[in-house]
Amino acid sequence: MFFNSIEFFIFLPIVFGLYWLIGGKNIKTQNLLVAAASYVFYGWWDWRFLSLILFSSLVDYSIGIALGKNEKPTTRKTLLWISICVNLGFLGFFKYYNFFVDSLINSFTFFGSELSINTLNIILPVGISFYTFQTLSYTIDVYNRKLEPTKDFVGFMAFVSFFPQLVAGPIERATNLLPQFSVERKFDYRNAVDGLRQVLWGLFKKIVIADNCAKYANIIFNNHTDYNGSTLLLGAFFFAFQIYGDFSGYSDIAIGISRLFGFNLKRNFAFPYFSRDIAEFWRRWHISLSTWFRDYLYIPLGGSRGGTSMKVRNTFIIFIVSGFWHGANWTFVIWGALNAIYFLPLLLANKNRVNTNLVAEEKYLPSIKELGQMGFTFLLTLIAWVFFRADNVTHAFSYLKGIFSESLFSWVEIFPSTILGLVFFFIITEWLGRSGEYAIEKVDFINRPIRWGFYLLLIILMFAFTGEEQQFIYFQF
Amino acid sequence: MKKFLKNIIIFFLLALIVGEIVVRVTHTMSDIPQRVIDENGIQKYYPNQEGYWKGGDHKWSINKLGWPGELPNSYDNLIMIIGDSYIENFMNPNDCHQSAFLKKNMKTFNFMEAGRSGVSLIEAMEISKNLDSLKPVKTLVYVNNNDFYESIRDIKPLQDITQVNLKNGTIVYGKMKAPLFKKILYNWKLLYYFYTRFPLNNQSENAEAPTVSEAIEENNDILKSKSEVFNLINYIKDNYFIKDKVFVFHPNSNTEIIEQCKNLGFNIIVLDSSKDDKKWVFDHDSHWTCYGHEQVAKQISNALLK
């Protein structure tokens, strides 16, 4: 079930009504309703894969209990590795099996030998990368004694399958979300209104910005040899806003819906395109994944402690693994490596935490320097996005070659002024609202007629500019 | 919770009002004329209505006889034009109608259109029988393959389309399908917008709306239900005055149907778009554009003048 579908617009009010009216103040009933609704939500796509979530929940719940009872380090370590192997085993099989087989065959062919292994026709379960990481965070945190193992299986099931963020995040930490399933949840008017507002903004990002930019990004990327350099750059620009609108839009909807049910999820995006350097960009882009890798991979590897070679190694590992998490394709690996290359000079010069504050804080306009920094950082991400969007490595290099040609300085061959106008409106709104958790959070302080008028404007724009409905990009990851 | 629900409901109602205003002002949805069934069982429109086509670029109008388009200045030397949504032609302005183009090519004749979306061949024959009182010198009946199939109750009974029961030779007149629902739907523009935008099922694009997809070209080389179709043609020959009728076949119509009509003595014109580099139909709609109508009229006037 997609957030931008009719089914969901029927599903949500029903679940909301049942949750508050029947669930009332009884946590167990509420948790049961959340778990049931989440299974319906996921099963709507393909009910067969519900067994995968259920199995994953059972394994990690049992291992959590066992970890709570065992004090012996070797047994605890074994239990942790069972959880890691089961979760990553599923992920590896469904997501990476064919990639590894293909890569192995290609390697053998390269060295002149033939290898015969069949690839499988595997359906990738939607959101597997997200809920796998979420359940892993539970076991690791219990192992590290940061969290008490839960004894409430229904609550745990609801945590693993929590429908607002099940298929595309934010990847919640067990330490943040799981305890919320065991405390009384009361309906809070301000929280619910704020949640709805965030849902509205998320839908606008997805339907108006992402889907409309997708149309032109697809045209340009799919026919890149027909266009000049400036048009190819515009294609990358459209993709940059497609992926941002799509993914951060989904996160906004997920966070907003969770608030309707009395849950608070972690922020996932913090206006990343207003970053002044790549380090800041990565503190603002897909925060839940970046911090996951930081806490469960980068720091255990030694982090930025140790010598230069250690820093370089760990940076490459975390960025490449992050790229690979996105998909079984060398383009994602290169995208990750490229970001590591962007990031390393800042890390080695100890300048990776220079820009931790809000850009042009309490000012309407940025300084020339800040504008230049933001522009340059955006340009770097744009180049990296080419690898992320390209079908394969050859496509990406051919696309970049097209951009950096003489024709970069000729006029664009496609100029959808209305869509560019919408993107401009979007950027201005995000800029004005950058001090909030999401762009229109502060609208709450404007008087009601103007506020409601603004909401209506967004809704009208959604209907007027509904692009061709596109699946959320991050569903495939 | 009460305050939340109250505000949601108020906002929802406000959104409905604003949405309705926006849809009406911007003509997001076409205005749909209201229908009536006359004393002869023919579905037509209430006379003297007018409205805007989607986008508001042009208006359609219903004349005093209840058919779309303008009436001729005189009924002398009249050529009648009968057909479905292609002739109804709400998607083009009046000067892009068959009557306008044919009048340009055949100045000594007058032309009158009687078109309505969803008209089957048998209903077109019934309409022509009723309009014979105007003493037309010729009646052009525009047909495609579906018009034959949909006319035959023995193949598939359709409640809202006039059909013939070939077993007992009776005409079963079409009834209005959900008239109250349609009245509400077409007057509540925002609801109509949602209804067409998010159809409840694949069939919800109803036959009455001007954007019908009835003419989607199928594999026309294969004639389905051949004996029934041939029986229908025989039935028409036996029960209607066909001497002054001309069947205008859409491009790519089934050759067996065309041959059978020809063999039984029907006057026919077969349209051909294959030699034209330019498309006759809209990009997202199988109906003829203004250019398409002009080309159709050119081929028909050439054939008639011959």
Could you walk me through the main structural features you see in this protein, from its secondary elements to its overall organization?
Chain B: This is SGNH/GDSL hydrolase family protein. Chain B: It comes from Winogradskyella damuponensis. Chain A: Its main location: membrane. The complex is a heterodimer of chains A (477) and B (306). Chain A has 477 residues and is mainly α. Chain A folds into two domains: 6-186, no CATH class; 190-276 and 355-476, no CATH class. Helices cover 66% and strands 0% of the residues of chain A. Chain A is built from 17 helices and no strands. The longest helix of chain A is centred in the N-terminal third of the chain and has 38 residues, at 73-110. With 306 residues, chain B is an alpha/beta fold. Chain B has a single domain, classed as SGNH hydrolase (Rossmann fold), CATH 3.40.50. Chain B has helices spanning 2-25, 85-88, 98-105, 121-131, 145-151, 179-187, 189-197, 226-239, 255-263, 290-305; strands at 35-37, 43-45, 50-52, 59-61, 78-83, 110-115, 138-143, 163-165, 170-172, 245-249, 267-270. A five-stranded parallel β-sheet of chain B has the order 6-5-7-10-11, with helices on both faces. Chain B has a two-stranded antiparallel ribbon with strand order 1-2. In chain B, α9 (255-263) links the parallel β10 (245-249) and β11 (267-270). The termini of chain B are far apart.
